[in-house]
Each structure stands twice: as C-alpha cells, then as structure tokens.
Amino acid sequence: MDYLLRDSFYCGVSYGRIDIEHIIAGLGLATWKRNGRTYLTVKEKAVLAIDDLLWSRHQMFLQVYGHKTNVALNRTLQLALPEAMSEIQDLNPPRRYNQYLEFTDDFVLAKILSLCFHEKKLGEKGYARLLARRQVPEHLYELRLPTTTSAPESLEVLARRDQLANERGVDASKVLFAPSANDIIKKGLLPFVFIDKGAGGFELEPYQSRSSLYPFGEGEAALPPRYAMVHFFMDRDDTMQAADPGKNETRKEKISPSKIEKLPMKAAARTSKKK
After folding, report:
1. Contact at 8 Å (CB) between 63 and 15?
2. Side by side, which strands form the sheet with 27-31?
3. Fewest CB atoms within 10 A around its CB: which of 32, 36, 158, 263?
4. For residue range 101-136, what is the model confidence (pLDDT) as tens digits?
5. How many Cβ atoms sit within 10 Å of the Cβ of residue 244?
6. How far apart are the C-alpha atoms of 265 and 273, rounded to whole Å?
7. How far apart are CA 153 and CA 139, in angstroms?
8. Burial of 232 (0-12, 13-18, 19+ CB in 10 A)
C-alpha cells in the first residue's frame, strides 16, 4: 500500500493519500466456526479506509499511471533500451553479482545520455531524442476499451492505428500504441468484515455489504471492475516529416545533440565582441 503514498508524493499530486495505519490496525485473521476456514478480515470501523484505498488507487491509475505522457514514455523506453544496449558496449548484460548491483536505472540512463551528447552517430537515435532532447512523443488518440477486453491488439485497436496513419499519410508502423489496464477491484481478494458480537462471538459479512463503493449491496460496484485504454502516439520528428519533410531536416540541424557543446562557446564569443 505504501507505493500509493510514495508515488503521490514524488508526482506532486493529491491522489493516493490513504490512512495506512488505520487500515493495518483494522486487519486481522478469523476462523469461522461455520466451516472451520480462516479468513482475512477487517474491522467495521476500517471499511471506509479501505474504500478510500480502492478509490485512491483508481484515481492514481486514471491520473498518473495511465496518463498519456507516462504511457508514451514507458513504451518508448521499452523499445529504445534493447537497441541502446545492443550498440553501447558498457551496457552489456551483467554477468557477475557486483555488476548486477551497479547496473541500476541511474547507471543505464546516465551512460546512454552521455553517449547521446558525445557520439555523433547516436545523435539522431530514438532514445537520443527522448533522453537528450527531451522530445516526448506526440499523443494522437486515447481509446477507451470495454472492461472485458483483455487483448491490447484487438481488431478495434489495429483499425484505429491504421486510421490514424492514413490521416497523417504515414506507414502504420510509425503509429505506436500502448495499452494501460488494471483490475481496480480484484475479485476474491476483498476481506470479510469482522462484526464483534461480544462475549467472544463474532460474525463475518461480505465486504460489499458494508462498503460505500457497493451502494446496492453485493451487486455492481460504483467503481468499474477494470480500467482499460490504449494510447496512440508518434515520434515528433515523424510527425514533422509527414507535414513538411524540408522543415524536419532543418530542425534536426539546429538542435543536433552533437552541436550542443559548441553553443556556449559561440555565445561567449558574441559576448566578448560586444564588450
């Protein structure tokens, strides 16, 4: 549960703030005499805290984890890192224990970023545009899927990709897509509500019967059982090239990473001439 608080803090959003202490204090185990089985339980007073946990998790997926920029960056990195590791010798898969310890996210990204700035041949790679030039892919479309859809490459998704490619006059391979889905309420994993009857007696009731997220008892929840959508996006250089190939080449020449180091020297030269 702590990941919600941590991600909320570092993302600077108000979603994901939950009362972990209250939830933990309310959890327990109880063996029901009716069938002799032991169940995970929650005290009646902590039910609303768990409701808040489920709602906060839903909001984090909608606003943070499934945000178009986050999904696009994760997908681009997923495609770029294997290519970078195949071309950069220092990024060969570690073979020893101490190499695994050193092979952190910071090490990998710092090595790629350094080479993007200093190696001319890497200047126009996809990961160079993403990491060195901070060029986030252009978001094209957001497709919400039925909560029962499990296959990200459904016919509806592929048809939408082809339509977006035709509208921009590019090959369908230029339009990337990435799914974002998660089970908001996982069936069978909600605890029973522990009802203290006094004198050591108790009853266990289904969580849905006491939850504010289930206004109709054990029927359909107020939250959707599954969050599912697909984001479509394109590399910004591909977008500009489709619009005007000539401008794209000019833009690459102006902001090529191999020339970034020379810019401060030119600026200093102009300053000295003015003096």
Report:
1. yes
2. 27-31, 38-43, 192-198, 201-205
3. 36
4. 888 888 887 877 777 776 655 556 666 667 677 778
5. 11
6. 12
7. 18
8. buried
Type of residue numbered 80: A
Question: How open is the CA angle 267-264-241, to the nearest 5 degrees?
Answer: 95
Residue labelled with tokens 């993403």: 130
Length of the chain: 275
Residues 59-109 have pLDDT tens digits of 888 888 888 888 888 887 787 777 777 777 777 778 888 888 888 888 887
- For the stretch 189-225, what's the b/e string if a residue is b when 16 or more beta carbons lie within 10 angstroms of its beta carbon? ebbbbbeeeeeeeeebeebbebbebbeeeeeebebee
Statement: the pTM of the whole predicted model exceeds 0.70: no
